[in-house]
Specification:
The complex is a heterodimer. By secondary structure, chain A is of the alpha+beta class. In chain A, 51% of the residues lie in helices and 18% in strands. The longest helix of chain A has 36 residues. Chain A is elongated, with a radius of gyration of 34 Å. Chain B is α+β, with helices and mostly antiparallel strands. Chain B has a single domain, classed as Alpha-Beta Plaits (2-Layer Sandwich), CATH 3.30.70. Chain B has a 4-stranded antiparallel beta sheet. The chains are: A alpha+beta, B alpha+beta. At the A-B interface, α4 and α9 of A face α1 of B.
Chain lengths: 650, 72
């Protein structure tokens, strides 16, 4: 029994067992390999064809080698025959069959014509090594699939529902309905999205966000499916059914991500379509033309058979998608969901990152830092709160929370986009907004030079005062921008803030550029302009955090959304979602992308180069079939091993 | 109509590509994507003839890789 134990992901031990089919193949290969080596040694020592002193002496080594050949290669021969009947001629099985049977034929010819036997061992070796290569490809692919699957082992198996009569029932998560109350004990995985109705605990969100610190939550707070409940027993009211739940959506995203093919993969597809027929034609040419010219048909047929051996671009065809697959899997370990191989590829060429300021570079938690003048603070806040009452804008909310008291809400509110709010009741008119609003209604106001968001407040055309609101920059912003700059990335900030505030923030963070005083629609226009200016082949990324960033996310080459736990809209509209509301995901994603693309490039170049080299050497007679097959299978194994490197620690 | 299928025993990346091309040629298939790594296939085709089209898809797949099974 060949069970292997390997460490995966979070240090859990999992057995990687071979399937029945794989075990059978491995046994076959092992037996054939041992038999072959034995036979080879015996043959070299006792030159088998000389045992009987006749013209049929070749029969002995032939039958022995052929027997091993059949054991190791019967399936190849069968598939070759079957596929021809289905109309597929340029099949790798067929080509391998032709190459090896051809070698056997040449060997028989040498035997029959009394020369020293040549070719039986090679014919056998070719198929043997070919099967080793195939097995390795299959094993490596299976192992990669399993390792990604275990990373994504966030699928819950059951849910415990508390029925009306108090009984707790174990059901399949897909059977739960919105409104059901489910119980999650410590150690169990949260099966569905919901709101805690009883209990408090800490959650391990590592599988979804890559965040290693547990999250403390209590009653009234939302939880998402896929997290592991650590300390306390909680009861959750289900808000989304299983197929709409976060864990289902994430699993679907990751599983389908490899569907969107990258340019590299498309290239390989096109390449391999032409490669095989060309190599086969070359083989025919080499077999026929020089033979006619020089008459040494034996040599030239032998050389052309080596061509057939390298005619299959299998390593290339597997290693490229495998690299992307591993790259996407590696990213998901950090809570970075890449929705397509093409985005991973593009990210490597991303040299401009455009950020939305509020909520992305900053916490978006505006807070009133002072009123001007402070002496009239109460009055200013009261009036402003009335105007801002209905608004969900962060500035509005900070004013209302600074005011702290109940707000009179029987005013008519008029929202003036980009300027502010006008609130009217009877004969009273309140103006609350920026300089544009004050000018629009001809209110003479004292313009503030303070850097930050200034909200001017006026009542009945009389200027009362202003409120200074500042937005906290996230802790990681500065270091992330520096890291990106170190990678040669331009960073641009788009904001609706005024020029002075934007300039202050931009220089504090270290941005390359910024554009201020932008209305929402201006942001998309800015992106359009930048897209027009950039070099072809470079990619422009937009990083935003919410619904109102959707147009920008979609218009840019790569839309990156700061997911934050539960931000559905962002996940939907983006090409890459950072499940953790943390900018540090950006340099990590770029590093993964760079590593993936480098490995893909290495594999393509080396695989093609080695094959061409083998072809040249074979044609010139410097390489025997041994070298051809070992070189080909060798480079295939190397390419696959290299591809699996993508998954290792950055 | 777009539908996802799981492909069991899809071992050869070359075969995956051949399958994709063969299916794309079938009448009524608007789009097809065979994902070798995830062992999945997505097919977009006319809703009305979907079952008939799927029969042709199964045949095309079996021609390329007889061991491969399509699972809904």
């Amino acid at each position: 029994m060949r069970d292997k134990i390997s460490f995966i992901g979070r240090g859990q031990m999992k057995k990687v067992t071979l399937s029945k089919k794989e075990k059978k193949n491995l046994t076959r290969i092992a037996i054939s390999l041992i038999a072959f080596i034995t036979l080879l040694i015996v043959d070299k020592i006792i030159v088998l064809d000389r045992i009987t002193d006749s013209n049929l002496g070749w029969l002995l080594p032939f039958s022995l080698y052929f027997a091993i050949y059949i054991i190791i290669g019967y399936d190849v021969l069968l598939k070759a025959a079957r596929n021809i009947f289905h109309g597929q001629v340029f099949d790798e099985n067929f080509l391998m069959a032709v190459a090896t049977l051809g070698a056997f034929s040449l060997g028989i010819y040498t035997g029959v014509s009394g020369k020293a036997i040549e070719g039986f061992d090679e014919a056998c070796a070719v198929l043997l090594f070919y099967q080793v290569g195939e097995f390795f490809q299959s094993y490596a692919t299976g192992k990669s699939r399993k390792s990604i699957a275990s990373l994504m082992d966030i699928r819950p198996d059951y849910a415990l529902v508390r029925r009306d009569d108090g009984v707790i029932q174990k059901i399949d998560p897909s059977e739960a309905r919105v409104g059901d109350i489910i119980v999650v004990n410590p150690g169990e995985r949260v099966p569905l999205d919901g709101i805690i109705v009883k209990g408090e605990t800490s959650l391990d969100t590592k599988a979804l966000t890559g965040e290693s610190l547990p999250r403390e939550i209590s009653e009234g707070e939302r939880v998402i499916s896929g997290c592991v409940n650590l300390t306390g027993r909680i009861e959750i009211e289900v808000t989304k059914e299983f197929y709409d739940s976060t864990v289902s959506k994430i699993l679907e995203l990751v599983e389908n991500a490899s569907q969107r093919k990258s340019k590299a993969e498309n290239f390989i597809t096109k390449f391999s379509r032409y490669y095989t027929p060309i190599v086969v034609c070359a083989a025919l040419l080499i077999a026929i033309a020089p033979s006619i010219a020089t008459g040494r048909w034996f040599d030239w047929i032998y050389r052309s058979l080596s061509f057939l051996v390298v005619s299959c671009p299998c390593a290339l065809v597997i290693s490229v998608p495998l690299s992307f697959f591993m790259g996407i899997g590696a990213a998901s370990k950090y809570g970075i969901l890449v929705k397509g191989s093409n985005y991973l590829e593009k990210l490597d060429r991303a040299d401009t990152f455009v950020f939305d300021k509020t909520g992305t570079l900053t916490k978006g938690n505006f807070a009133v830092s002072k009123t001007i003048p402070e002496s009239r603070r109460e009055e200013i806040l009261t009036i402003a709160a009335i105007a801002e009452k209905g608004s969900s804008h962060p500035i509005a909310r900070s004013i209302i929370s600074a005011y702290g008291k109940d707000v009179n809400d029987d005013y008519t509110i008029i929202n003036e986009a980009g300027c502010g709010i006008v609130a009217k009741k009877d004969s009273e008119e309140i103006y609350c907004g920026n300089a544009k609003l004050m000018n629009k209604y001809n209110v003479e106001f004292k313009e503030e030079e303070e850097v930050g968001s200034i909200v001017y407040v006026a009542k009945n055309k009389e200027f009362i005062g202003s409120i200074l609101i500042e937005d906290e920059i996230k802790e990681e912003t500065k270091s992330v921008i520096a890291e990106l700059a170190g990678m040669g990335v331009k960073t641009v900030m788009l904001t609706g803030d005024n020029e002075a505030t934007a300039k202050k923030v931009a220089s504090e963070i270290g941005l390359t550029d910024y554009k201020a005083s932008l209305l929402p629609q201006d942001k998309v226009e800015s992106i359009e302009n930048m897209l027009g200016e950039k070099k072809k082949g470079d990619a422009l990324c937009f990083v935003g955090d919410g619904i109102n960033d959707a147009p920008a996310l979609m218009r840019s080459d790569i839309g990156i959304a700061m997911g934050g736990v539960g931000s559905d809209a962002a996940i939907e509209a983006s090409d890459i979602a950072l499940m953790q509301d943390d900018l540090r995901g950006l340099p990590i994603a770029k590093k993964i992308s760079r590593k993936t693309m480098r490995i893909v490039f290495e594999n393509i170049i080396v695989s093609i180069a080695v094959k061409v080299l083998i072809m040249i050497l074979s044609a010139l007679g410097f390489a025997s079939m041994w070298i051809a097959v070992i070189g080909d299978v060798g480079v295939a194994i190397l390419a696959i091993l290299n591809a699996m490197r993508v998954g290792r620690k950055l | 109509m777009k539908k996802n299928f799981k492909l069991e025993d899809l071992d050869c990346a070359n075969c995956a590509m051949k399958m994709e091309r063969a299916i794309a040629k079938i009448d009524g298939v608007d789009a097809v994507s065979v994902n070798f790594m995830a062992q999945r296939m997505t097919i977009e085709a006319d809703e009305e003839n979907f079952d008939a089209i799927m029969e042709k898809v199964v045949k095309a797949c079996r021609k390329v890789e007889p061991d491969c099974k399509i699972i809904k």
